[in-house]
Amino acid sequence: MTYQFTVSPDFSPAHIAGWHIFNTWLQKQLSEAIHFEMYDSFDAQRQAINEGKVDLIYANPYDAAMLVRDKGFTALARPIDKPDEAMVVVNSDSVITTIEELQAGINVAYTDDPDVKMMGMIMLEPADLNASNIT
After folding, report:
1. Percent of the chain with pLDDT over 90
2. In contact, 116 and 110? CB cutoff 8 Å
3. pTM of whole model > 0.85?
């Protein structure tokens, strides 16, 4: 089986050679065949994802949220000692273990960065939470 690998279409063409080098390195490390495919638009890439033609993807934060939430992708890697841009956490004493267990009326702390806030709100959607039912 050959795995299909792609990256977000918004990467500069100047970085494409680096992705090919990474793909070659990854194949050697895993002893697996991996085909690197660049898409020229987000629409073309989303179509490939919807058709099951993408196995591994380096995605921007917005697409990462959609891939995890809607397509069942799992995050495999992230920078060491760098905070995630958005995360959902509960008190260590909480019995809540999934997003879906969160209830309307919860108190939510978030950054004033509108992009990061939007990503966090997207992450709360499986619990039917939105700006009108959180404090």
Report:
1. 53
2. yes
3. no
